[in-house]
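I am writing to request your help with a piece of structural work I have in hand. I set the record out below, with my sincere thanks for your time.
___
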Amino acid sequence: MTAIFDLKESKGRPGMARRLLLIIGAVVAASGAAMLPATLVSLAYGEGLAALEILAAALVTMAMGFLAWRVFGQTGVLTTREGFAAVGLAWFVMSAFGTLPFLLTRSIPNFFDAYFEVASGFTTTGASILPDPAALPKGVLFWRSMTQWIGGMGVIVLSIAILPLLGVGGVQLARAESPGPTPDRLTPRFQETAKRLWMVYAGLTVLQILLLWPGDMDLFQSVNHAMTTMSTGGFGTEATSITGFNAYTQWVITVFMFLAGMSFALHYRALRHPKAYFRNAEFGLYSAFFFGAVVIIAGGLIGPGVEVSDAIRDAAFTAGTLITTTGFATADFGAWRPALQIFVVGLMFLGGMAGSTAGGVKTFRVGILAKAALADLRRIVHPRAVLITRFGKERVKDGVVESIQSFFLFYMFLFMTATFLISFIDANLGEEINLVTSASAVAASLGNIGPGLGDVGPAANYLAIPMPGRTLLAFLMIVGRLEIFPVLLLFTRHLWKR
């Protein structure tokens, strides 16, 4: 048996292709196995036909993944570029296979609509084309939430944790998939780090289930909402998102959104040393963004006929759902006064901490960009001064600053270009989509947030965007989830040359 996992050196393009097939096949097989619990859920609710159809989807997915992994794949030490290529391709391929439960149960009969929904799930975006999720079979609804839960921490990281052969080159894979400058190691072996991160992730999910269940959610709703909260995904079981649940439920979700927007490595360290939270500069900035946003939004909501407690609760929930890019809603912020809507759009670009399940630019990048900009201003006044960029007490290397500036440049370039393309598509297909809808849809997709403003606001869905536009947005979701570079590198010849 151990011979299967022996490393074989291979050179050139064919070897690279087979190593990529091994990784992609293993990821697809793992995503197929993740469909099996949805089969059991359908059986538990008496949905016999749906259970068989989901089981067929799982078996087809596992069979195709196993074929690529064990028959055509080849083990070997992954280079950095192969790690980036494997991750970029794997997310597109597993999203395609993830459509099968929707297609076979005819819950979403169109492949491109199903791909949009699944890409939104795996990337934890939370954008949807479904007017009423509650109309889905329970098993399909569970699979929809499951895509966000396994996509939140990262299916590649999960594969590294459970498949020993993927420990070879695991750091390269994690570097390409994990949010942040480098994967945060808790142990010398990244495989052990991946397991511990998933243990924290699963533990917090179970804790939230136990806290939601005593409220006005039943067990099924509690499980689904815990999975989509900890993944900062935002898929709900009801058409009205969280609006129909009571204040207790909304506060529980708000707290766990805040926790999910924090680094899971920091959570693990804080289990032994609680003061680790307060020694972390990024946590301080993240908390300042969150509570500052709560104060500003609450101040804009408080007025005649509005209870202060309701305004604070809606402000805290909305600040949490936007900064952590979760996408739940207790209020239609698209109907708020224009000044608050502009503030909402600004929050869409922040994101949570590095090493969290949140999307967006990320708190540490915002902080370093601000520090670097201030240093440049000082350099104009004192051209001979030796200025050092620091984040907290740590010195930030010039290479890291340049990398972050490059990331932000690409991020804004994609935002502006995609906004133009969505507007162009809408205009040529005769749709009456305004610039606010187009820009917020792109910001919400690239930042993995979900609801935007206008026709894609919290009270609406993405059916207002034409099919070509939704396909582009699905692409942007994956680009945003992988933090741009692994996907853009797929389109460069340097990645594929010998």
